[in-house]
Amino acid sequence: MNYLSLATANMKRRKWRTFFTIVGITAIVMAFFSLATFSQGYQNALRKEFTSLGIQMLAVPKGCPYEMTIHILHGGHIEQSLTMDQFHQVQSHPSVLIASPILLEKVVHKNTQMETVLYGVYSDFALLKPLWSMNQLSFSHEEANECWIGSNLAKTLSLKTGDTLPSVYFDQELQVVGILPQTRTADDQFIFAPLHTVQKILDHPQQVKAIGIQLVDGEKVGPAIEALSKIPDVQIVSYRQAEYTLNDLVQSTRNLVQIAIWFIVLMGVIGIVNTLMMAIEDRRKEMGMMKALGATSLQLSYGIGIEVFFIILSGCGLGMILSWILNKGIENLLRLLVSNAPTGTLSFYSFSTIVSTVVLCIILGLVASIIPYITIQKISPLEAIQDEEG
Amino acid sequence: MKKANPIISLHGINKNYHRGNEIVHALQGVDIAIEKGDFIAFMGASGSGKSTLLNIIGGLDQCTSGSYFLDTQEVAKIPEKKWIYLRRKWFGYVFQAFHLIPTLTVKENIELPLLFAGKQQLGGRIQDTLVEIGLDHRVDHLPSQLSGGEMQRTAIARAIVHNPPILIADEPTGNLDSDNADIIFRLFQTLNQKHNITILCATHDAQLAKQCSRIVHMKDGIIWED
User: Fold this and answer.
1) Are residues A33 and A86 in the same domain?
2) SS3 letters for A210-247?
3) What ipTM score was computed for the predicted complex, to two decimals?
4) Do B113 and A293 count as a contact with CB atoms less than 8 A apart?
5) Which stretches of chain A sit within 8 Å of chain B by CB?
6) Mutate to test the interface with B, among A1, A10, A383, A388 (most CBs of B within 10 A)
7) Which of A6, A9, A296 lies closest to B84 in CB terms?
8) What is the pTM of this model?
9) How many domains does chain A fold into?
């Protein structure tokens, strides 16, 4: 016999209590692990979306630049517009290498009511998109009734290059001249057509909603922002600023959730302490007898410690596995709670997240063992034996 | 009474404790010397102090005043942490209520003192002890599957598995019928004669006490007759 078999025998004694304690730990770990993996995954997904945008900065109309950035990433309605004249001013600035105008609007399938976004862009927009990696992607001219279609939408509509996009979203048929490669971003669902064609379809002549900008010298973002901001009624927001600000917004929400999680962890510690104290009270006489047989408090605590760590690590492992299994559901829930959450997978499992979770569990176990250890020290062999006899 | 080379020697042992506002004098100036190989019955009515005396001798309780020599070492005031090691080396305990661990088998219960002393390598002792007490056929049974006599024999096996020189038995037959009580006392006699274990046994049963080499009568916390 060893301490492990002693601990196993004790855990089997109150199977349901052991089971529910493990369930409690599992729930705590699920909450913590999900938050940690989603936190990292959200940042990664957001970065991927900005990278997929392929620009260093955006010129947008006056208003909230971050809201507009989100709309440009995910598609949405932007009330204000920039003019083609403003576009030409941006384009002609010496610090600008590529200026790509963007006009966009949500469109709805007339039969299925499924939403997508129609983008009006110039052919050089494709040059900005690192994830598209298609050298030959272009429109025959900027007023052609042609389009590129995101891979998922192409699948949904069963379209391939050369087919015609029927007039189900708007009153204009477009010839599909390119199916975009899958990027696992919102682009996979969108339609991209020549700017002037889209201006006609949406009846927004001479209007754009934003201008994607790539600089001649990517290191000189600051001076470029300063110079371009001088164009009347134009705001410049850099990719870094937008990413940082959006991350910051998410961070605030995450901080709130973290407080809740730490509260849950605290409740978990109290729960484990309570369970351990009940277990010790159950076995108080036995422990007294064991002390009479030569057991030290440390040896008894070691036995209890094995139980604690079995329970904690079982809950930890189960929590992480369940979190991984339920991740899709949690992701969907998060998308409901956080509007405009980035597309693609939002959970990111790193070795450090797994190690952090296990370390948290071990700390939780150690903290929860302090009071029971003190209690064990105070158990007197005589007191325990007399309790039963008297 | 002072003997030449006692294994246990108590002088002027007092034990007081509080019961509400009242101070109870459980032991009042007890002197006793016990030699190696003694088989002593401590007799007396409930509250006479015999269990308290055995608890102090066995290091389960501390005296209020007086001196206690275990072999040559004064142990009256040593802390509980040190007593743990003395208990491992010197004592085995048998109680009226058996105090077996219900989730462990007979073998595992007997193994506990070896586990705590870090002497699992003496596992062979378990089988020898089980044979000696006649429980080798019950090795894998749980306490709930044993009779009262078998439970007490298991407790005795647990008390002697680590070869202690002194066995303390507090009312070991209190929960047993007379047949089983006889078996337990015969087992004590065997252990005393064969292994020269010093046995200190509190009992109410005068017939059983007669089987001991020495009888100590206690009354109101003092040794009335030795």
Assistant:
1) no
2) EEEEEECCCCCHHHHHHHHCCCCCEEEEEHHHHHHHHH
3) 0.88
4) yes
5) 1-3, 5-6, 9-10, 12-13, 285-286, 289-296, 299, 380-382, 385, 388-389
6) A1
7) A296
8) 0.67
9) 2
Interface test with A, best of B116, B162, B171, B175 (most A CBs within 10 A): B116
pLDDT, tens only, B186-195: 889 998 998 8
Does any CB of chain A come closer than 8 Å to the CB of residue B117? Answer: yes
Asked if residue A135 has pLDDT above 60, the reply is no
pLDDT digits (tens, 9 = 90+) for A309-347: 898 899 999 999 998 888 778 777 767 776 566 666 777
> Burial code of A164-188, b = ≥16 C-beta within 10 A, e = fewer?
ebeeebbebebebbbbbeebbbbbb
Do A83 and A202 lie in a common domain? yes
Average per-residue pLDDT in chain A? 83
Residue A41 lies in a domain: yes
The answer to whether the Cβ–Cβ distance between A385 and B99 falls below 8 Å is: yes
Interface test with A, best of B53, B103, B144 (most A CBs within 10 A): B103
CA A343 to chain centroid = 9
- CB neighbourhood size of A308 (10 A): 24
- Whether B104 sits inside 8 A of A294 (CB atoms) is no
Instruction: Please tell me if residue B95 touches chain A, with a CB cutoff of 8 Å.
Output: yes
What pLDDT was estimated at residue A191? 93
Which of A330, A308, A314, A319 is closest to A376 using CA atoms?
A308
| Residue range B70-87: mean pLDDT, rounded | 89
The class that CATH gives domain B37-61+84-225 is alpha beta
A198 and A256 housed in the same domain? no
